[in-house]
Amino acid sequence: MVKITFVDPEGTARTVDAEEGSTVMENAVRNGIPGIEAECGGACSCATCHVYVDEEWETVTGSPQPMEEDMLDFAYDVRPNSRLSCQIRVTPELDGLVVRTPIRQG
Ligand code: FES
């Protein structure tokens, strides 16, 4: 299992066991992580699964694909480390990943 930690805007950290091959968003929803709405169910068409990837993990998670970048235009308070969590696939290399949830989605 791969551990992923979600940190909310108040600084509360929640760590979940994520299954390889799933997405970061799916693990957030499955574990009831507050602040991840994922209205489109992972189709990259809602931008309500927006997270900030912790700096040290940015090279591991990689950059958004063009479709994700387009959707990020609809997200609130987008930053250079913004990603849509439904577009981050869980791999063994992501063990220990830390992402932060925004103050609000959309
Ligand atoms: S769940 Fe809709 S864009 Fe990620």
Automatic annotation (TrEMBL):
Which cofactor is recorded for it?
[2Fe-2S] cluster
Question: What keywords appear on the UniProt entry?
Answer: 2Fe-2S, Iron, Iron-sulfur, Metal-binding
Q: Which residues form the 2Fe-2S ferredoxin-type domain?
A: 2-105
State the superkingdom: Bacteria
Protein name according to UniProt: 2Fe-2S iron-sulfur cluster binding domain-containing protein
Under InterPro entries, the record lists: 2Fe-2S_ferredoxin-like_sf (IPR036010), 2Fe-2S_ferredoxin-type (IPR001041), Adrenodoxin-like (IPR001055), Adrenodoxin_Fe-S_BS (IPR018298), Beta-grasp_dom_sf (IPR012675)
CDD domains, alphabetized: fer2 (cd00207)
By its UniProt entry, which Gene3D superfamilies does this protein fall under? 3.10.20.30
Q: Which SUPFAM superfamilies match?
A: 2Fe-2S ferredoxin-like
Which Pfam families does this entry report, sorted A to Z? Fer2
Q: Which PROSITE patterns match?
A: 2FE2S_FER_2 (PS51085), ADX (PS00814)
Give the protein family.
Belongs to the adrenodoxin/putidaredoxin family.
